[in-house]
């Protein structure tokens, strides 16, 4: 049997054997790739590995353990393998997670107190780690079945939940991204207006044009360098802020715990741990190696968890007597900026860097999604997805400059808990327990079977229902 053949995915079917040991098939290619008239590869070339069961000791193809990678990433110019780095993947998860949600955590947890909100943060972290691992599990199984190295959330939902699931994913994805981009533009314009002394519409437009221009015109390396600078700014400003504010920390206030107020804070806390939109990218970069993906997700989300807890403790412990308003969320950061002339500017700098990193990531994610939705050619930057990603959030943020907390709350309740709460468990349920696929199932990343999946879906559903009831039962403001 010939094993040297150029193909992006080559399935080799063996007759049904007894099931002793799981092997992996590695196919090496020796012929030059086939190019089109644009001198581009017709399809990306990868060294795919497909699991099969075979007992023969003298298999002509090299066999590997089942813990090996699913395929190999090749440089399309040199045709050399470029394996993904676990460290880079971990930093990608951490950078995606640390966003504007951290700015809202003290505001939504002030009534619950630090101790109760710390329990809520750790619980939400565990929940979001589980749903991220479920996304990774379904993603790799979908890549194995489709023979493709890059699989979107829509493709995963179509395969496991059908067209209805794909529609829910599409609308939830668009809702989350637009709601968060509106929140980011609204808060960043407020920060720039305070610093530069220019009108709100000018600062919002300046922010959108500069960062949107970086996303559209910048190369992948240039965008990565800008993101690295912003992350360095986040770390530096955060360390400075903690060092200055901790001197005024009133430790006894950190012992406050009002668990009855915790449910109202869960949507925004869950939103603060969103990273699942980059899990398909992780699975591709790490070549389908689920052990590496698990490591990147666990460590990459644990870093923001520690950051969130320290941030919440510093803010709530520095301003113990927080003012509250009926039916409104009072921002502790605003009070800190107005009462502390030294800490206030550092809070603004940290807030701006956190928003900027999230804004770049969500713009790139939304433009890729819209390009796929409009079936635009891959590898080419068309202006339409960027125009649709940048200008609607700009207009909406100018119509309601105080939309920051409302946008985050709606995105967390009706977007995140559906797209990254209910749907990953539903897709995993279908993927694990349906008999449609002929492929061998990978070992589940999340133990517990149907009980765990039911708890994941039930937890998200209960929060959504309670939030809906709370909104209906809340008395109107005078």
Automatic annotation (TrEMBL):
GO terms for cellular component: plasma membrane. It is a multi-pass membrane protein. It comes from the Eukaryota. One of its GO terms (biological process) is amino acid transmembrane transport. Keywords: Cell inner membrane, Cell membrane, Membrane, Transmembrane, Transmembrane helix, Transport. It is found in: Cell inner membrane. The chain crosses the membrane at residues 86-105, 112-136, 164-186, 198-219, 225-245, 257-275, 295-319, 340-363, 411-429, 449-469. InterPro entries: Amino_acid_transport_2. This is Tyrosine-specific transport protein. It comes from Aquilegia coerulea. The lineage of its organism: Eukaryota, Viridiplantae, Streptophyta, Embryophyta, Tracheophyta.
